[in-house]
Every structure is written in structure tokens, then in C-alpha cells.
Specification:
The protein is built from eight helices and nine strands. With about 200 residues, the chain is of the alpha/beta class. The protein has a single domain, classed as 3-Layer(aba) Sandwich (Rossmann fold), CATH 3.40.50.300. The strands form two sheets. It has a five-stranded parallel β-sheet with strand order 2-7-1-8-9, sandwiched between helices. The longest helix is centred in the last third of the chain and has 16 residues. The two termini are about 20 Å apart. The mean pLDDT is about 95. The structure holds guanosine-5'-monophosphate (5GP). The site of guanosine-5'-monophosphate (5GP) has 15 residues, from strand 5, strand 6, strand 7 and helix 4.
Length: about 200
């Protein structure tokens, strides 16, 4: 029987660099499939529908909520973001690991629905660094910046519920740590019962 792929959830407060880390991780791990989220926020320059996100109207998004199309969804700073369920099931059933890069509310909901997921929390090296990163985006008013920073500080404690924590001090190092976690998870005995069965069969011959 085909082994089911892992559901890998990378999450953490705003400004920890989830997007950059996941982009590099995906580029270096071709066998890892990315779950493209849906959102009601407007595309940013260079973003492509169906690649970065599925960009939906609020009505279309709410319709999908009604139809139960999302594994989870959350309202992040006034816009909806959601993880489409169908493709994840297909890919995992085909043995592929699927990566979700989502906010902490979404991750908590996935934890309820898929406790077998691999939950990785990304932490900033310090609060000062987190503030610098959020300021560096320059897309924020002072008010929204302070709101994001306040939320980010509160969200740090949520990390205690995850299985792994990775400090994003340098992108390359954070990616290397996540790759090591994936390798270790693939070596778990309970993920590899089939290897033992093959050898048991061979012994019997
Ligand atoms: P951005 O608008 O900067 O692309 O993303 C804003 C936040 O939404 C980030 O924290 C990102 O991880 C989160 N996010 C992206 N996709 C999803 C999703 O499908 N579900 C949830 N809950 N959060 C998401």
C-alpha cells in the first residue's frame, strides 16, 4: 500500500520570515508539494493567480467556506486566507509531503483536524529583529505596524503547542534545520513498518 505523505505546517508570527524560508525550502526540496492558499487580499506586484495564491472575491471565498472546501481558514488583518482541502488529500494519498505556510490561527485549527501533521514553529532571533523586519517591509502605517508587532508578541507563546521550533536567524540555517526535521520524521519506525515487513517476508523464504 502507498504510504501517505506528511502534512508539514510551517507557521509563526508575522515578520518571522515564513515566506522566504518556505520559498527556499521548496526550491531545495522538489519532492515537497506546496499547498497554494486562497485569499481575498489583492495580489501584490509580481504575484500570479494559481501560483502564489488563488485570489478570490469575498463572495467566492464565503461560498467555498459554505461548501466545506477548506481544511482551515482565518481572517488575517481583514482578509480571508484558507487552505483548500481537495488537493492536499490527493497529494498525500499519492505519497507526497505537502507544505502549508499559514498563520498561527490556521495552524491551531489544522492541529485540531489533523493531529498527525508535522507542526514547525518559526521564531525570530529576537523581538528587536522582529520589529526591524516588520518595519523593513515599509508597507505598513505606524498604527498597523504596532498592531502587527503586538500580535506577533502574543503569538510567540502559541509556539509551545508545536512539535518543533526553528529560529530564523539566517534563512539558510533555518531551511537546513527544517530539512533535517523532515529527514528525521521520514526515519521514524512508525513511518516505516513496510521496511520491516519486507525483511520479515524475506526471512520466511
Ligand atoms: P501575506 O498576505 O503576507 O501573503 O500573508 C499574511 C499571512 O497569512 C501570513 O502569516 C501567511 O502565513 C498567512 N497565510 C497564508 N496563507 C494562509 C492560509 O491558507 N491560511 C491561514 N490561516 N493563513 C495563511
Amino acid at each position: 500500500m502507498m504510504k501517505q505523505g506528511m502534512l508539514v505546517v510551517v507557521s509563526g508570527p508575522s515578520g518571522t520570515g515564513k515566506g522566504t524560508v518556505c520559498e527556499k525550502l521548496l526550491a531545495e526540496t522538489p519532492e515537497l508539494a506546496y499547498s497554494i492558499s486562497a485569499t481575498t487580499r489583492a495580489p501584490r506586484a509580481g504575484e500570479v493567480d494559481g501560483k502564489n495564491y488563488y485570489f478570490l472575491t469575498r463572495e467566492a471565498f464565503e461560498q467555498k467556506i459554505q461548501e466545506g472546501d477548506f481544511l482551515e481558514y482565518a481572517n488575517v488583518y481583514g482578509n480571508y486566507y484558507g487552505t483548500p482541502l481537495g488537493k492536499i488529500q490527493e497529494r498525500r494519498a499519492a505519497g507526497e509531503d505537502v507544505l502549508l505556510e499559514i498563520d498561527t490561527q490556521g495552524a491551531m485549527n489544522v492541529m485540531q483536524r489533523c493531529p498527525d501533521g508535522l507542526f514547525i514553529f518559526l521564531l525570530p532571533p529576537s523581538l528587536a529583529e522582529l520589529e526591524q523586519r516588520i518595519r523593513g517591509r515599509q508597507s505598513e502605517t505606524e498604527e498597523s505596524l504596532l498592531r502587527r508587532l503586538g500580535n506577533a508578541k502574543k503569538e510567540i507563546a502559541i509556539g509551545l503547542k508545536y512539535k518543533y521550533v526553528v529560529v530564523n536567524d539566517q534563512v539558510e540555517l533555518a531551511v537546513a534545520r527544517i530539512k533535517s526535521i523532515l529527514t528525521a520524521e521520514h526515519c521514524r519506525v512508525d513511518m516505516n513498518q513496510d521496511l520491516f515487513e519486507v525483511l520479515e517476508d524475506e526471512k520466511r523464504k
